[in-house]
């Protein structure tokens, strides 16, 4: 009786409506804030710290009342700002472009100097509706001049950080493909959705980021359930071809992406906590912000948890069985529809969590999931289509090669994905089925 009452209270259709309702709320709040701003939508922000060494430990303290100047590349003054008690500043710029941001040395306290490597200022490229961050350090320079090989460990660490986020998001995409055969191009928008829900709860409602992230993951799982029961299952039952379903997913992705743009706006925003962490944790030649270490650690724990679930849990074994052979699994008594529903819930939750992690590291933006989509597909293709463990291996290769490309070709941030795609092509030439893929017998 209790099960009957529960099923009537939360039917799949109501779960879909609940998820969509929360989605609309999450879009309307940030969108209204974006339209209420009077300053130009693009700006340069950051903090100013005085850096000293005490007993071999690096101490950083914020410096107030420092004038920050923004100029064109030819030296023409654009605007300026003064740091507050936290050393923070925000300088609006009238239009997108390339600017030089520097400290007015006449405004510095007595006995304090700009670090040598920042005396000439920092060149900043500001895109439309974007906020770029630049931090200044006074006293001794915080950045030693390093050779190319000395930068390699840090590059690999950055690549591993990106790889962990790609792995979290691509796991769900791989599981969905393995159980249904669907190449879901709307999975990137699930990543964006999770980040936006967390942003709305964090910045608009005022929740701390941790509970906001937990709720965002839960809502993403509900939306995954709603999409499966309200759309994909019906298309499967009506014998819609996988090609047609893939085209539907492309249309859904485009619709969701531009709904995000309409309601949220084109700005690039940060969460309220853990964004500015100037004190990096030094691990040998590697320096990572505390939030990055937490993101990597939590991602690793989540990956291990999913792997144990697939290997040990009853439903995990059922997912693997359906992935290997849906017809045989169904004839063996496995409820394939229920298994696929669990996969969509798990895929939505993982996408939402990956979106929060990506937003924490790289800020929240309306098309952030689309940016990750190519890397996710590259990861699951490289590892072996439909193989979740292959997706993990492929994510490691893709994430590291993305960052390695910037090490091989300096100042080529716009071409970061080239390295991953080159690795994808080379590996598929040697192993056409992917690193962990297996040959399939046809006929």
Topology (elements, then pairings):
Elements: H1 2-9, H2 12-36, E1 43-54, E2 57-62, E3 67-72, E4 77-82, E5 88-92, E6 97-103, E7 122-126, E8 131-133, E9 136-139, H3 148-180, H4 187-205, H5 209-237, H6 242-264, E10 281-283, E11 286-288, H7 290-312, H8 314-324, H9 326-331, H10 336-362, H11 368-383, H12 388-408, H13 416-430
Parallel strand pairs: 1-8, 1-9
Antiparallel strand pairs: 1-2, 1-5, 3-4, 3-6, 6-7, 10-11
Helix pairs in contact: 2-4, 2-5, 2-6, 3-7, 3-8, 3-10, 3-11, 3-12, 4-5, 4-6, 4-10, 4-11, 5-10, 7-8, 7-10, 8-10, 11-12, 11-13, 12-13
Structure, described:
With 443 residues, the protein is of the alpha+beta class. It folds into two domains: 86 residues, Sandwich (Immunoglobulin-like), CATH 2.60.40.10; 283 residues, Orthogonal Bundle (ABC transporter involved in vitamin B12 uptake, BtuC). Helix content is 58%, strand content 14%. The protein is built from 13 helices and eleven strands.
Low-confidence stretches: 1-10, 22-39, 141-145
The largest sheet, given as strand count, sense and whether it forms a barrel, is:
5 strands, mixed
Q: What is the CATH class designation of the largest domain?
A: Mainly Alpha
Broad structural category: alpha+beta
Instruction: Give the radius of gyration.
Output: 24 Å
- What is the fold-level CATH name, i.e. the topology of the largest domain? ABC transporter involved in vitamin B12 uptake, BtuC
Order of helices and strands: HHEEEEEEEEEHHHHEEHHHHHHH
Number of helices: 13
Kindly give the count of domains: 2
The gross shape turns out to be: elongated
Distance between the termini: 48 Å
The CATH architecture of the largest domain comes to Orthogonal Bundle
How many β strands by DSSP?
A: 11
Helix content: 55-70%
- Chain-averaged pLDDT: 82
Portion in strands: 5-15%
